[in-house]
Amino acid sequence: MQEGLREDVRDAVRAGQVSGSGMDIGINKDVCIGAGQCALLAPRVFTQDDEGLSELAEDWEQAAAGPGAPVREAARACPVGAISVTDVRSAS
Ligand code: SF4
Predict the structure, then answer these.
(1) Whether 36 contacts 63, CB under 8 Å
(2) Which residue among 37, 45, 84, 85 is best mutated to probe the pocket of ligand 1, counting the most ligand atoms within 8 A of its Cβ?
(3) pLDDT above 90 coverage of the chain, percent
(4) Coiled-coil segments, which residues (predicted)?
(5) More confident site: 22 or 63
(6) Whether the model pTM is above 0.90
(7) Which residues have C-beta atoms less than 6 Å from ligand 1?
């Protein structure tokens, strides 16, 4: 697990689902094979842990909110479908 993540985010990443920047990003580490496509395509959003499995980068929320952040492309490129991305709209 990456140093510098907020404790609540760290817990959520362990659980496989985090929210922020208007989207939910789920990483299923039981499915991830460490191919690294996500980190290659969106290196400011995804990184890999010591075992090579995907995890969210330290500043992923800011990076994911940026214009043209290739979060969905990274999810589509994952060869085992380990990443899910869902838009979250506020109910106001
Ligand atoms: S592309 Fe998929 S399999 Fe590869 S590291 Fe990312 S989540 Fe894991």
Answers:
(1) no
(2) 37
(3) 53
(4) none
(5) 63
(6) no
(7) 27, 32-38, 48, 54, 78, 80, 82-83
